[in-house]
Amino acid sequence: MFDHIAFPIPYQTLQLPQPVQLTIKRLDLIHPQISGNKFFKLKYNLLAAQQQGFSQVLTFGGAFSNHIAATAFAAQHFGFQSIGMIRGEELASQPFNPTLQTAQDLGMQLHFLSRFEYRLRHQAEYLQQLQQQYPQAFIIPEGGSNALAIQGTQEILSPDDLENYDVICCAVGTGGTLAGIIESSSELQHVLGFSALKGDFLKHDIQQWTDKSNWSLTDAYCCGGYAKTTLELLQFMQQFEQQYDIPLEQVYTAKMMMGLLDLIQHSHFPAHTRILVIHTGGLQGKLKTY
Ligand SMILES: *Cc1c(COP(=O)(O)O)cnc(C)c1O
Question: Structure pTM?
Fold first, then answer.
């Protein structure tokens, strides 16, 4: 899998009316299926599973989870069987959406959990039981965020990125990607996370993974919460895609770009700030809208 990745990762600089430099690091282009940050999050998890002799990987996600799709693909590529624990019993009897259909086509065994059972997904006792039930499975948490994932997301920034930019922006779900970027950033840089979810709890999650303080997180552009959208967001996304020919998706990257361009318009950054935006991908379930 790792030899199929298109390195070096392309950069694209946008022409803006304001006096800041905005460059996008296109992680969405590294691979058609395991695109973006999920590749970095899975890398050391799958290497560890391989070294420890597991034959299966098991993980958790919602029906639209990019992590589920990426894991199904990467597992197949690496020669693992994959098991997906999906939130929502009712989904079992409905036609699959593209994410679940893709995962199943890639050989992922899907199990649909009640919301009650799904809520136990981080509990040690539940995970022990699951491990007994699936002794061959290497268990990866929801969204793929664990210490091994953060080891991987520390490789998103290159040495040049540490020199060439003042601000690094990234969309945030569980915070594992942002934590790796913070950990690998230089002290002179500021890392700005755009949360796709409402709430402050994410700050605490991220603090568990890093001692550094050169970062901040905003949920001002989450449009009401995870996977929620507004007409403004959808219109922004379409207009941005047409103008720059860069695809976004509405759960993460469109919210981040809308937020970032709003901050730039309101002169949040000093003139000549060099901003690097991480395009985290997540486009596998998306139809081209332009
Ligand atoms: C999963 C995902 C994120 C969030 O990553 P976390 O490490 O969970 O914060 C951001 N953008 C895209 C496109 C994703 O698929």
Answer: 0.94
Q: Where on the phi/psi map is residue 65: left (φ > 0), alpha (ψ -120 to 50), or beta?
A: beta
Record the tokens describing residue 39, joined without a space: 């590749």
pLDDT band at 288 (very low <50, low <70, confident <90, very high): very low
Which among 112, 142, 172 is the end of a domain?
142
Ligand 1 pocket mutation pick from 41, 59, 172 by most atoms within 8 angstroms of CB? 172
Q: What is the pLDDT of residue 239?
A: 98
Catalytic option among 65, 82, 185, 195: 65
CATH of the domain at 161: 3.40.50.1100
Pocket test for ligand 1, best of 280, 283, 284, 286 (most atoms within 8 A of CB): 280
Domain containing 201 equals 9-33+152-283
Check whether the bond before 135 is cis (ω within 30° of 0): no
pLDDT at 110 over 60: yes
